[in-house]
């Protein structure tokens, strides 16, 4: 009962507000937004937005009128503390907002590079629209970028920068790209494709310092020194070394946190009046056993829908089926399921033809499918998951096996 206050207007926060209204919630909804834009989609920031010429309005989920029509109060500002005893949220402006239910959709922030000269203006990150906008503006005046970190965002940006005509070097400490997230087969495919595009990928190395000329606050980047003694020239450095979940607001209010804000299978914190969704939430997952924190649009929006349903009387544990995508140059990677913990990988299709899927098994249990330019396999994987079904590794490898027959 009472108003729902949502902290954070990213994918999770926006969806929670929209789904609450859709489900008929009629009390006050406030969406606390600490970015100076209407709520927007993040994935294009490292892809189409940097590449193209469309303005920020092309990224917005909805125009301003939507929030007015739906009486969703967009409040510009930052939440600074929670008074749980009095059920009030304090904003940096000093405003106190009473809540019936508080939703923490605070997302994650860039992990910062702790290196000499890492604060120079030509060392950039890529999480929020303002950072993407800054990169978009600066790219035409740059010739050579070193990307630190070969995760999804580092590689998406690297591919885009190459298309924009920059010389690109990518540094990765692990022995392969996207090592924590995808199979070795998929890493190898992308390494080859990025190298074909003229991107130099350096594996098993670390940046040890950023070289610059001039003042320590305003100087110009001239290159990056590596742990193997090499030095790469650069006039731009882009850092993609992962994120840290924004858990501080919860922690300071005495809510349990670990590698995320701890919530149960209903996405509730230990305080029944406070829930957490999206990148910031470490949620109990009966389906996967144990706790998970995922960073994906699917996870944030499905969390938000599940929570909105609970707050409007339809209480069910969260049981979303994970899926994800990453566009890198001309290649589209799509992942259905969680592909960690596999002991066997079966390929369907042919990497040489630039279209294949890696079916990941633990024993005979299909955990997930990583598809490259095979949207049909991806959609199949999502539907199969939703039906709690599997196919055998032999069927997966056999291109003459009709996947649709497994869905009948
Ligand atoms: P966020 O979208 O991070 O939103 C959290 C919001 O809360 C932020 O605006 C933050 O500033 C705000 N906030 C935090 N603390 C406070 C406070 N105290 N007061 C007020 N506001 C606060 N996922 C995919 O599935 N596919 C992709 O291709 C993909 N590409 C991506 C590309 C980029 C460049 C990035 C950065 C992410 C990408 N992701 C992708 C991941 C996806 O965008 C995130 O998983 C998703 O945005 C998570 O939503 P969220 O609502 O949990 O957090």
Labels describing this entry:
408 residues; alpha/beta; FAD/NAD(P)-binding domain; Enolase-like, domain 1; five-stranded parallel beta sheet; 10 helices; 26 strands; globular; binds flavin-adenine dinucleotide
Mean pLDDT: 97
Chemical compounds bound to the protein: flavin-adenine dinucleotide
Q: How many extended strands?
A: 26
The CATH class of the largest domain turns out to be Alpha Beta
Taking strands numbered 1, 2, ... along the chain, how are they ordered across the largest sheet?
3-2-1-7-19
Q: Kindly report the oligomeric state of this protein.
A: single chain
The name CATH uses for the topology of the largest domain is FAD/NAD(P)-binding domain
Coarse shape: globular
- State the secondary-structure class: alpha/beta
| Beta strand % | 25-35%
Report the major sheet: 5 strands, parallel
- Helices, by number, come to 10
CATH superfamily of the largest domain: FAD/NAD(P)-binding domain
Helical fraction equals: 10-25%
